[in-house]
Design a protein that fits this description.
five-stranded mixed β-sheet; Heat Shock Protein 90; single chain; alpha+beta; 2 domains
Length: 409
């Protein structure tokens, strides 16, 4: 009797591979979050640079710039920038996103009042409100212009240039508060939109990670009953034909190695996948009498293309599981063909149950999870049709292929 040794030192590779996959996925999620924050900062700086440039262009004359007015506007805009930044980077993340609404409103109000008060006081110190006075009156050639005090009446017939009306302190405060509230609202809205986008991306990433786990489960799942029945058949075959039993064990070990290692990277060659299917069908035939018709049709020339592994095995497994009856004539057929950069797979089996029983029993990893896996792999670029009548059950799957290219999963 031949002794089979299992290389236990190879098993941690699978664990390390799973750990590396999780670590890579965490880095991927972190990088996406970092990218969103970088975009936030770029938009923040670009927007405020544009806002700060407005006074310069508004007060620029043909050859000069009224820097006094530009500086006055910059003082007011700086106060809005401080309010926006404190709200955007501190108050909203610290209080609003944590649902501390009362603390957020109170703190935001306090910040607006303090910054507005300091800005108005500083503005009055730099550019105080000047009393409206009459402009100097020209007395004629050789005479200096005469200054007119604010209380002096203008001479009869003198029409001074119109003097622009200045805002009162109350109006300055009201305008400053109103604009500050609008700035708070704008900053909060932008931050909430960015947070919503971030949460949506995180939700999609988690959903994608879940689908990847389901896909990994699909790749590595072969029914335990299949292995148990195969081993039982090998055990019975040893007494009948020891050489065939040895070959069957080698076939089974090759399949297990393919499942554990060759499919770990998320892709395999079409040739390897076909070899696995052939081995699977060969081992399954040990369980059933020779009267069960099993048909396998594959291309004569198999191109060197990459495909996701274990795409067809769940359908094929269910065909053997639910399409074979020991009391009635049964068949299973597997056809694979290549047409116009598409891989077409058709699996048919005899039917011995009602539609309700078929829907209930057709499981494996489940049609829902299979469709999710296909959506993850190909988006909308695949075709899955399931047809059944009273005697047959048929599954047709068409996927795109890319020669000499690897799918990204």
């Amino acid at each position: 009797m031949q002794t089979i040794y299992i290389e236990w030192d190879e098993l941690p590779i699978v664990k390390l591979d799973i750990f590396a996959t999780k670590f890579t996925w965490m880095k991927y999620i972190g990088s996406k979050t970092l990218n969103i924050r970088i975009i936030e900062l770029i938009v923040f700086f670009a927007s405020w640079m544009a806002i700060f440039s407005i006074p310069f262009f508004n007060h620029r004359l043909s050859n000069t710039v009224d820097w006094i007015k530009v500086f006055e506007d910059w003082i007011r805009i700086s106060s809005y920038l401080i309010i926006f930044s404190v709200n955007f980077f501190v108050l909203v993340p610290l209080f609003l996103f944590k649902k501390k609404y009362r603390i957020y409103i109170a703190t935001a109000t306090l910040v607006v009042l303090i910054i507005t008060g300091i800005t108005i006081l500083f503005g009055l110190m730099v550019t105080p409100v000047r009393p409206v006075t009459m402009p100097p009156m020209d007395l004629g050639p050789g005479m200096p212009p005469m200054e007119l005090g604010s209380g002096m009446p203008a001479p009869i017939g003198y029409k001074p240039l119109s003097v622009p009306e200045q805002k009162s302190i109350f109006m300055i405060i009201a305008d400053q508060l109103l604009i500050s509230i609008l700035v708070i609202g704008a900053g909060t809205s932008i931050k909430m939109i960015a947070q919503w986008i971030r949460e949506e991306n995180r939700h999609k990433d988690l959903e994608k990670e879940q689908l990847k786990n389901e896909l990994a489960f699909l790749r590595h799942q072969v029914s335990p009953h299949f292995f148990m029945n195969t081993l039982n058949n090998i055990h019975a075959l040893i007494d009948i034909n020891a050489e065939d039993a040895k070959n069957t064990i080698i076939e089974l070990s090759t399949m297990m190695r393919y499942l554990l290692y060759d499919t770990a990277q998320g892709q395999t060659t079409l040739k390897k996948e076909i070899n696995f299917i052939e081995s699977y069908i060969t081992l399954m035939q040990l369980r059933f009498p020779k009267k069960v018709a099993v048909s396998l049709v594959i291309p004569n020339n198999i191109p060197d293309i990459q495909i996701p592994p274990m795409l067809f095995i769940s359908f094929l497994e269910n065909s053997f599981k639910h399409g074979i009856s020991f009391q009635a004539e049964s068949f299973v057929s597997f056809d694979l063909e290549l047409t116009d950069n598409r891989l077409n797979c058709r699996i048919k089996n005899s039917k011995h149950f009602s539609k309700e029983s078929t829907d209930k029993n057709y499981s494996g990893i489940g049609l829902t999870n299979i469709k999710k896996s296909l959506d993850l792999l190909f988006g909308k670029d695949y075709l899955l049709n399931i047809r059944e009548d009273e005697k047959e059950f048929e599954v047709q799957l068409t996927i795109p292929i890319y020669e000499n290219k690897m799918h990204s999963y």
